[in-house]
Amino acid sequence: MAEQTIYIIGHRNPDTDSICSALAYARLKQTTGIQNVKAARAGEINVQTEYVLDRFKIERPIYLADVKVRVHDVMTAELLSVNTGMSVGDVLDFMNAYNLLMAPVTDEDGLYKGAITLQDLARFYTRHADAATSNRLIASLNSMSKAIQGNPLYLFDETEIKPGRIVVGAMETEGFLQVMRYYSGEGCIVIVGDRREIQRQAVENKARCLIVTGGFLPDESILEIAQKNRVSVISSPYDTATTVRLLHLSTPAGEVYSTDFYSVSPYNLLSDVRSRMLESGLRGCPVVDDEGRLTGILTRGDLLKEYRKKVILVDHNEASQAIPGIEEAEVVEVYDHHRIGSFQTLHPILFVVEPVGCTSTLIAELYIKNSIEPDEAYAGLMLSAIISDTVILRSPTTTERDMKVAKYLSEVTGLNIQRLGEDIFNASSDLLKMTHEEIIKTDYKVYEVKDHKIGIGQIEVIEMLTFERLKESLVEALRKILIEERLTFASLLVSDIIYENSLLLFTGDSNIVTRMGYPIISPNIAELKGVLSRKKQLVPRLLSSLR
């Protein structure tokens, strides 16, 4: 059985560090022999990160909408199913062999059609207790012969499934002929013991099939007429009553199954399906993909499985910033450089949160510690992330460790830190090519403090002229986000990396800005001189003002 995949993933609205640290850490683990890891992302990739990935020719990490448990995570993938052409007898044997209360039904192409339950089989037998319908039979001659363990003497069109009428030759010849004439055209299936005249009349009147019970065989003269008239002949080892009862087991499953049986998609949330199954009393349900193919069965036993997706969090450690469904997942590691929020795990884990300027600094140090030199592409990713997070090593968050690691990665890649930084910020500073939401969500995080829910985006620019043209419309976009996300305060920190100053656009409770002590220079805009770091300068001051 394959090992469960561990997803290495950054925060929602991922920035360059969030994406690059996930990719670089996954690469490191794979290099050290841990193959069941996969880099992932919890949102769209921003313009700056796109530039970095394209520059170093690295594939985008896979997108995960959430890490909630879905049906395909716990379903029984063994395909225990019957097809529409199987006989009821074979279906019963199959269900008994696997102790099933329900069996999915597929057609010859493997497409899901419905399901057969014990209730369906009970209804089937009840139907044959009705005098008006008890002698109707839809089956192929092959299935009939198999159901009664018969000896087929002649079979014509033996695989064709056709409707017919069971006629028991227990009356005098004249009465038998009247019944034959009454059902003419309905494909009579004549069941009779060692009564030669009835046998002869059956083949002469072109019954579909003559079944001789008790293990008897018809005379050669009767067989000759049967062959001439294309009447199939089967010898049954059982008495007439038993033969009639067993014959109904030759009915194909396609005549018995329920077409409206509850089925689920492999991508349905397990929590939703669990409620439906428990409320309805279902013991199991088929799992059908978007193409209509059966992919498994979800049983009550599957609902009891202790399954959680495994994740390693990078560049964050707060549930409010994590991918949706994190409460259903098992967090196995954390690598971060932000404040520690409210965080709980099922078991003790590796939890690394250190005061450096970038998570990729921590990941690069792991390469160095393990004496593994990253290839140029992944070294380029980590260097780009450090440059982005520390604003080319100018941010107050920058530490000696960041500078030391950046120098090392610069040597591995042969890239000049300053020139690479200019390229990265030039790629992401053309605000006119971005929507208002893209600008705000380029690097956006939500913080929860007491009764407050605060959204703060950040974007670095190399000049403020373009921003001046967009500030009013950006404030309107912030108002929309404030309402949609039910925030107390929504803001965008616009940082000029040349002059090392920032402006804060905001909506919501303006008293928050006042309490922080920043001057409001125009409606919904505050000036933050000397501020470049959201993490080290803005957020601590904001959180202090709310306490």
Task: Explain the overall architecture.
- By secondary structure, the chain is an alpha/beta fold.
- It folds into three domains: 185 residues, inorganic pyrophosphatase (n-terminal core), CATH 3.90.1640; 168 residues, 3-Layer(aba) Sandwich (Udp-n-acetylmuramoylalanyl-d-glutamate--2,6- Diaminopimelate Ligase, Chain: A, domain 1); 116 residues, Roll (Diaminopimelate Epimerase, Chain A, domain 1).
- Helices cover 37% and strands 22% of the residues.
- The protein is built from 20 helices and 23 strands.
- A six-stranded parallel β-sheet has the order 3-2-1-15-16-17. A six-stranded mixed β-sheet has the order 7-9-10-11-12-8, with helices on both faces. A six-stranded mixed β-sheet has the order 18-19-20-21-23-22.
- Strand 2, helix 2 and strand 3 form a beta-alpha-beta unit.
- Helix 8 runs parallel beside helix 9.
- The model has no long low-confidence stretch (mean pLDDT 91).
Explain the layout of strands and helices.
Blueprint: E1 6-9, H1 16-31, E2 37-41, H2 47-55, E3 62-63, H3 71-74, E4 82-83, H4 88-97, E5 102-106, E6 112-117, H5 118-127, E7 136-139, H6 141-147, E8 151-154, E9 162-168, H7 173-182, E10 188-192, H8 196-204, E11 209-212, H9 220-228, E12 232-235, H10 240-247, H11 270-280, E13 284-288, E14 294-299, H12 300-303, E15 310-314, E16 330-336, E17 350-353, H13 359-369, H14 376-389, H15 400-413, H16 417-428, H17 436-441, E18 444-449, E19 452-461, H18 465-484, E20 489-496, E21 501-508, H19 511-516, E22 520-522, E23 525-528, H20 534-546
Parallel strand pairs: 1-2, 1-15, 2-3, 4-5, 9-10, 10-11, 11-12, 15-16, 16-17, 19-20
Antiparallel strand pairs: 5-6, 7-9, 8-12, 13-14, 18-19, 20-21, 21-23, 22-23
Helix pairs in contact: 1-13, 1-14, 2-16, 7-8, 8-9, 13-14, 14-15, 14-16
